[in-house]
Design goal:
This protein has 413 residues and is of the alpha+beta class. Helices cover 36% and strands 21% of the residues. The protein has helices at residues 20-24, 27-30, 35-54, 92-98, 122-128, 186-199, 226-233, 283-302, 315-319, 347-366, 368-404; strands at 60-66, 70-75, 130-139, 142-149, 152-162, 167-174, 204-209, 216-220, 245-249, 255-261, 268-273, 276-277, 322-328. The protein has an eight-stranded mixed β-sheet with strand order 5-4-3-6-2-1-7-8. Strands 9-10-13-11-12 form a five-stranded mixed β-sheet, sandwiched between helices. The longest helix is centred in the last third of the chain and has 37 residues, at 368-404.
Length: 413
């Protein structure tokens, strides 16, 4: 029997303990080690603060890019728990920052009805991929502090004073031995946090960049929520109706949708789950599209805008010129991967579809002028599509006839 050059037995099986796995394969947790992955670190910490806002405990988040590309995130939430965790025998705060998949968002009586950070890897992954991390916590009348280097505890949680406030402040410097660059792009962060503020009505998010001599600063605070979001997206466009259509549903799966049609030809639909931008869509988008197509077709037939001899409007006809933002809250969302770009929960399709069918039908009945303006555009899009189809068929038929016509005989003298 041939002897292998290298032995392969139990000694060769590596067991990566704690956060070593994150440092070994960072791409599995944050997508990449490029500038995109670098920004993901900030999002993970801010997501935790936004989760406090979703739970009703946080009204303000401040993000600062300090000189040297140090990130500071401050919130006025409840503060991370400081009592001893029964399993790890460490403080709950230290457990959150040093143990993978340790978090307060896995169901049960966690205090979080819904959450963006559901993998329990956010804070610990940031800690693992940072050269150093410092955390200050204010709660239960005390001011606490702990610090880490590359995921390892340097200073365990220690009470350093009293405080009558609550909240958490996190400062970290990303590890330059892992990331290709440590240069944060202000505009990328600005767009993300503007989006978050739109999606969390009433939450104030401020972003400041102290790296230049003249600091950049922006503050986002939108009482209008998704309506403000759609108005912002359509700021320089010609609208078919002045105010966005807003529909919502509470309950186990809260759904919020804002829609406004413009004279443009493209469709712009943005989907979010627990404030996470699902750029690849998923089951919530599928439910919305199905309902939109059915509701407008049913209304058009009922009002004789479409005759019996006319075919149904297609989804593309109905979505021409639409700007929509769909935000759903799901207690246990199934995302494709840690980067959370596509929702997979099958039950969400039916929930969104039923809600849009019901609420949008009622809106169209109560607002016939808006319904008429939208449907005129939809019917126009359908006619243009049909005319284009006939023109293509005519060209194909013509070229087919030309290619099959026999060559003309020539007479020889």
């Amino acid at each position: 029997m041939e002897k292998f050059e290298h032995e392969y037995n139990a000694d060769q099986i590596q067991v990566l303990e704690g956060l070593e796995a994150v440092r070994k394969r960072p791409g599995m947790y944050i997508g990449s080690v490029s500038v995109r992955g670098l920004h993901h670190l900030v999002y993970e910490i801010v997501d935790n603060a936004v989760d406090e806002a979703l739970a009703g405990y946080c009204t303000e988040i401040k993000i600062t890019i300090e000189k040297g590309n140090i990130i500071r995130v401050e919130d006025n939430g409840r503060g991370i728990p400081v009592d001893i965790h029964p399993k790890t025998k460490l403080s709950a705060a230290e457990t959150v920052y040093t143990v993978l998949h340790a978090g307060g968002k896995f169901g049960g009586d966690s205090g979080y009805k819904v959450s963006g950070g559901l993998h329990g890897v956010g804070a610990s992954v940031v800690n693992a991929l940072a050269e150093w991390t410092e955390v200050k916590i204010e709660r239960d009348g005390g001011l606490y502090e702990m610090s880490f280097e590359r995921g390892k505890t340097i200073k365990p949680l220690t009470r350093i004073g009293d405080s009558d406030k609550t909240g958490t402040t996190v400062r970290f410097l990303a590890d330059d031995t892992i990331f290709e660059t440590l240069e944060y792009e202000y505009e990328v962060l600005e767009n993300r946090f503007r989006e978050m503020a739109f999606l969390t009505k009433g939450l104030k998010i401020s972003l400041e960049d102290e790296r230049e001599e003249t600091p950049k600063k922006n503050e986002f605070h939108f009482e209008g929520g998704l309506i403000s979001f759609v108005e912002y997206l359509n700021n320089n466009k010609e609208k078919l109706h002045p105010k966005p259509i807003y529909i919502e549903k509470d309950g186990e799966f809260p759904v919020e949708i804002a829609i406004q049609y413009t004279s443009a030809y493209s469709e712009n639909i943005y989907t979010f789950v627990n404030n996470i931008n699902t750029i690849e869509g998923g089951t919530h988008l599928e439910g919305f599209k199905r309902a939109l197509t059915k509701t407008f077709n049913d209304y058009a037939k009922a009002k004789n805008i479409l005759k019996d001899k006319d075919g149904n409007l297609q989804g593309d006809d109905i979505r021409e010129g639409i700007t929509a933002v769909i935000s759903v809250k799901v207690k246990e969302p199934q995302f494709e991967g840690q980067t959370k770009t596509k929702l997979g929960n099958s039950e969400v399709t039916g929930i969104v579809q039923a809600m849009v069918n019901d609420k949008l039908s009622t809106f169209l009945e109560e607002n016939p002028n808006v319904a008429k303006a939208i449907l005129e555009k939809c019917v126009s899009a359908a006619r243009a599509r049909e005319a284009a189809r006939k023109a293509r068929e005519l060209v194909r038929r013509k070229s087919s006839l030309e290619s099959t016509t026999l060559p003309r005989k020539t007479c020889r003298l």
